[in-house]
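So, who can interpret the following?
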Amino acid sequence: MLFQLNIRKICGGSGLPFLSYETLDKLESVLPKAYEEQSNIALFFNHLDTLITLQQRELDKLKNLKKTCLEKMFV
């Protein structure tokens, strides 16, 4: 959320920029109010993370297989 708000515009200070609690307290954030919706969103992202992990493992296995095949071909 802070990256999307262009945090440099809301920081205070000149030499060493800072972000105070009062400034953060004034920011509005958009969050689903219903717990069920939040839970469904969390489940979706967990499922997505699982799929990404599985695909990464598959890619690593294929890279290893390619390396092994090339080593056997060019002895």
Observations:
- The CA atoms of residues 31 and 37 lie 10 Å apart.
- Residues 35-73 form the longest helix (39 residues).
- The chain has two helices and no strands.
